[in-house]
Structures are given as C-alpha cells and as structure tokens.
Amino acid sequence: MHTEFDTGVAAASRSWPFGRVQVHAPGRLHLGFLDPAGTLGRRFGSLGLVIDGPQTHVELGPACADSFDAPARDQDALARARAHVETLRRATGCRTPLALRLRSVLPAHAGLGSGTQLALAVGSAFCAAFDIPLTTPQLAFALGRGARSGVGVAGFEKGGLLVDGGPRADGSPAALLARVDLPAAWRVLLVLDPRLQGLSGAAEKAALARLAPLPRAAAADICHEVLMRVLPGAAGAEFEPFAAGLTHIQQLLGEHFAPAQEGRGFASEAVERLLRWVARNSQAGIGQSSWGPTGFAFLPSEAQAHAVLAAARAAGVVDAGLAVQVIRARNQGATVSDQRAGA
C-alpha cells in the first residue's frame, strides 16, 4: 500500500473525496485516586472532571491512498495516531485507505489526558468512518487506554464530574460509579506550565513502584471526602463543601506522591505558588491534575475567578511562563460529526 505524508492543507484537502468524520475530544482533570494501593484488594479508583478548554480535534475519512497530516509541533502525536490506526486495522480487518489530520491536540504529559483523548478520538473517527460498531470502552481496551484511571474513557463518552471504581480484573477500563453535572456558574482557573511535563511511561511506573503504599486510613479519608463532600457539593450546588473536600483530597495525595516530584506536592513551583496564593485569598478548591504540571483552582463564579486572577497578577504571583485560563466544566463528552456523503 502506498503511504504518503501530506504536510500542506491543499495536499490534505485532495485526500477527502468521500467526506470525513470529525471528532472534538475535550481535556479532563484527574482530581485524584481513591485507593492507589488497593488496601481492600481493588486498586486505584478515580475522581475526574471533563473541562471545556483545550481539546483534541481529529479528522478522518476514506481516501484513495493513506495520508497523515498534522502541524509541525504535533508530529509526535501524529506518530501515535498512525500507530492507533494500525492497531485498529489489525483488530478489525478494515484496511481501507484513509486520510487522517490532527487539527489540534492536547499538550502531552500535562495532566489533561492527552494520550487517552487522542486514542479515543482516532478510534471513534475510524469506527464512524467505516461503520464499525465498537463501544468507547472496547476502543479504550483495544488501544491500551484506561489501565489505571477510567475517568478519561468515561469522560470522552459522557462528560461531567466522574468517579470510577478502578480497573477490572481483566485489565479493561473501570466501571463508572457516579456522574454529576457541575453547576453552570462554577469556573475553573486552569494553570498550565508549558516548560515542564509530568511523569509518563517507564518513568511513571518506576515512580509508582518506589512509593510506599498509601495507608488504608488515608484511602478511607479520601473516599469519605468524595462521597460526603465532593459529590454532594456538586450535585447540590454547594460550593464550600465541594471545594474543601477537593482541597483535602489533593493535600493527602500531594503528600503521598511528593517523593516522586522532588519532595513537592506540585510538579511546578510556579503553579504551586499561584494556587497557594489563590487558596489564601479566596474560597477555592485547588490541586494538581495527575502528575501535572497543570494545576487548577475551582471558584464559585466567573466574576470571582477573573477577580482573583487579576488580584494575583497585581500581587506578582503569576509567573510570566504560565498559561492561565478561566474555563467551564463540560457536562458532555466528545462530539462526533459525520460529513460523509449520504451519512
């Protein structure tokens, strides 16, 4: 089979004679594990939130010859996307030539779920374009996603604030235990440090292996906070218990994972400095998503989020290298649009 790598928009456009499928996959915040040590025999379990901010945007459709295209900065993501296509071809037997274009991707190893969202976006587009009836969990399993946390998989499908029960014994993605819409008025101060990346791959596995197990009492405390403050707070639009519960969970987990982050609760000192200032000067729930370096602060309204950000800038605690946004939670999952003729 002839494979060509198109790098220009005009060249890629010639590869769409049959139309294409577009997938927009939002990022997610991983807000914490429930029991990473499995003190009752089941490891991990996760709390997470889908956000209406950075996203992965994929186009895929039948073509006369294979074509893979992405901006120069996203060539690593394009290589992963191409590998996902080959995995799907082996799994399904569908080898129709295709054109795939990455319009945008989430920053890699930043705590936003870039790997899972890219895999599921490519997988969903592939299945839609060629009428292959695989579910989102089946795609995740086939593409090796959701081995520890299930919130990225469930978030791709459903959006919202999510709790999963940890991976199944066969390694397939975790069952979804709870899903709650976050109140429309609440906002997230999303703080990215593009200069750093969080742990991933072999380094992540090695770091986890070196950590002492999270004590059962701490895991029980986290589960109590999720069940009796975070979820009820979100479901009942009660911001104070939600924020207090989330901050407490993040403090427990930050202390536990600190040895893997040079003794700090945050991967980025600049992110930590800003968020601790926000916590001291407002009613906010703060923390780090996964291994970071992305951090977050939940605020009860857009006005308060912008006000605290302006005050932080005036106080000189917003490092010039940080990218800071005020965003909403996203109470729906990825969007898939089919532009094929006759679809």
Question: What is the gist of this entry?
Answer:
This protein has 343 residues and is α+β, with helices and mostly antiparallel strands. It has two domains: 3-181, Ribosomal Protein S5, domain 2 (2-Layer Sandwich), CATH 3.30.230; 187-329, GHMP kinase, C-terminal domain (Alpha-Beta Plaits), CATH 3.30.70.
Q: Care to describe what's here?
A:
There is one protein chain. The longest helix is centred in the middle third of the chain and has 20 residues, at 216-235. By secondary structure, the protein is α+β, with helices and mostly antiparallel strands. It has helices spanning 9-13, 75-92, 114-129, 136-142, 151-158, 201-210, 216-235, 239-257, 269-281, 302-314; strands spanning 3-4, 21-35, 44-62, 66-69, 98-104, 161-164, 176-180, 187-192, 285-288, 295-299, 323-329, 335-338. The protein folds into two domains: 3-181, Ribosomal Protein S5, domain 2; 187-329, GHMP kinase, C-terminal domain (Alpha-Beta Plaits). The model is unreliable at 1-14 (pLDDT under 50).
CATH architecture group name of the largest domain = 2-Layer Sandwich
Report the mean per-residue pLDDT as an integer.
92
Q: Count the helices. How many?
A: 10
CATH topology heading of the largest domain: Ribosomal Protein S5, domain 2
Percent helix: 25-40%
Low-confidence stretches: 1-14
Task: Count every beta strand, where a strand is a DSSP E run of 2 or more residues.
Answer: 12
InterPro entries: GHMP_kinase_C_dom (IPR013750), GHMP_kinase_N_dom (IPR006204), RFAP_synthase (IPR004422), Ribosomal_Su5_D2-typ_SF (IPR020568), Ribsml_uS5_D2-typ_fold_subgr (IPR014721)
Keywords: Kinase, Transferase
Domain GHMP kinase N-terminal: 85-150
Protein name: Beta-ribofuranosylaminobenzene 5'-phosphate synthase
